[in-house]
Amino acid sequence: MAGARERVRTDLEQRMHESMAPFDEKSVIGWAIQCCDVLSYLHHQKPPIIFRDMKPANLMLTDFGKIYLVDFGIARFFN
Length: 79
Prior knowledge:
Elements: E1 8-11, H1 12-18, H2 25-43, E2 49-50, E3 59-62, E4 67-69, E5 76-77
Antiparallel strand pairs: 1-3, 2-5, 3-4
């Protein structure tokens, strides 16, 4: 379906607490790669943006396994 929107399901911290089993390796590697991609994008801005609050509660997960970084309240430009 064209234009379908992904629904943000929960933050990763909540998902960790709800899960009765470890996450599968393929999912974790995919999330890690997505986080690295976002951080690389932020660090290549002019001036670079430093995200200073990386934790599971600030990683939102969609139904399709896409990660969104949230809470840029203490993020800073690198001088």
